[in-house]
Write a structure and sequence with these properties.
alpha/beta, UDP N-Acetylglucosamine Acyltransferase, domain 1, 23% helix, binds guanosine-5'-diphosphate-alpha-D-mannose, nucleotidyltransferase, NTP_transferase_dom
């Protein structure tokens, strides 16, 4: 069985992290986002994953070479010279996806995180006999997603509308698909969208079916959603493998700490915090709802809430960072500085407060 991961785009919303690292390789809970997906695909018997990309191909391939061996799965690339959209990129990868067996293939948006119930999806797909299956989930505000209207008894999709201006339902496309190869005959090799042009058409033909996704789900392509997704994932760990989470007098709620991180006494960590490898946290520091990627140094008495600290960045003594402050790689916040949502480019230094 094969799979394709839609990993194109510049990851603009996760800037400045994506200035140095492609979005699919940015760590989420101390592991590159794309590895969660590749591991889940491998788990249901997928033998080859095609990455549809148009940006920083060499970096991604270099990184995945070692994992190809470790995971025992073939990883290839289909590179667009210009973005072909979510359907055109499938047309470009057609030869890689068709293996003559007629088996369906998975397609995943690269920026969604969930429990990936892919085996259930295979069963669901076999059961309905249509051409395509999509997973759907419920959100409070569907405006930035594909909204799906379903016939509840069968799961048949009656209507698929990408980011409609008005909507009466809150079931949305979760970005995880299982498609019959015949769908590739209906997609032209040009920039085109699966959500706007392909799914509405198949729904009209009554061949598109939706399965409700059990468990948590989040599109983590934007900083606020990344932190919200982290909260859901840590909660999932708490319920399913709590030994992975940190415990102790300085820990509050769900916290994940790489074992190489050094945390001095007298700091307060949590809730919803992830601390990456080689980080150093000095005494008196308070961290909540935030992520520290590899090699971050937080000096004495700093306070960080709802923020993301990029690789090898540093935060000065007594600094206060909040409201989605994002530090690019090796960015530096000086002592006593206050940041209310500042975004620092890689290597940038913040010497005075931004309110
Ligand atoms: N290869 C390739 N080429 N990939 C692309 C391209 C392209 O030209 N354009 C987008 N992608 C990839 C992105 O990297 C992402 O993984 C996925 O396709 C979806 O594209 P986004 O642009 O991030 O879409 P979105 O987040 O606004 O909406 C999508 O995801 C929602 C769920 O999070 C849609 O699929 C919605 O219907 C869905 O609800």
């Amino acid at each position: 069985m094969k799979a394709l991961i839609l990993a194109g785009g510049f990851g603009t919303h996760l800037m400045p992290l994506t200035v140095t690292v492609p979005r699919a390789l940015v760590e989420f809970a101390n592991k590159p986002i794309i590895l969660y997906q590749i591991e889940a695909l491998k788990g249901v018997g997928v033998s080859e994953v095609v990455l549809a990309i148009n940006y920083k191909q060499e970096v991604i391939l270099e990184f995945l070479k070692e994992h190809e061996k470790k995971l025992g799965i073939k990883i290839t690339c289909s590179q667009e010279t210009k973005p072909l959209g979510t359907a055109g990129s499938l047309a470009l990868a057609k030869d890689k996806l068709i293996d003559g067996t007629g088996e369906p293939f998975f397609v995943l948006n690269s920026d969604v995180i969930s429990e990936y119930p892919l085996m259930e999806m295979i069963e669901f797909h076999k059961g309905h006999g249509g051409q395509a299956s999509i997973m759907v989930t419920e959100v409070i505000d569907p405006s930035k997603y594909g909204v799906v209207v379903i016939r509840e008894a069968t799961g048949m999709v009656q209507e698929f509308a990408e980011k409609p201006s008005t909507f009466s339902r809150n079931k949305i496309n979760a970005g995880i698909y299982l498609l019959n190869p015949s769908i590739l005959d209906q997609i032209e090799l040009k920039a085109t969208s699966i959500e706007k042009e392909v799914f509405p058409r198949i729904a009209e033909d009554k061949k598109l079916f939706a399965m409700s996704l059990p468990g948590f789900w989040m599109d983590i392509g934007q900083p606020r959603d990344y932190i919200a997704g982290q909260r859901l994932y840590l909660q999932f760990l708490q319920q399913n493998s709590s030994a992975k989470l940190a415990t102790g007098p300085k820990i509050v709620g769900n916290v994940l700490i790489d074992e190489s991180a050094v945390i001095e006494d007298g700091s307060l960590i949590g809730p919803n915090v992830v601390i990456g490898p080689d980080c150093k946290i000095e005494s008196g520091v308070s961290l909540s709802f935030c992520t520290l990627l590899r090699g971050v140094h937080i000096k004495k008495d700093a306070f960080i809430c709802s923020s993301i600290m990029g690789w090898n960045s540093s935060v000065g003594r007594g600094a206060r960072l909040q409201n989605m402050t994002i530090l690019g790689e090796k960015a530096k916040v000086c002592d006593e500085v206050f940041s209310n949502g500042a975004v620092l480019q890689p290597h940038e230094e913040m010497k005075s407060s931004i309110f």
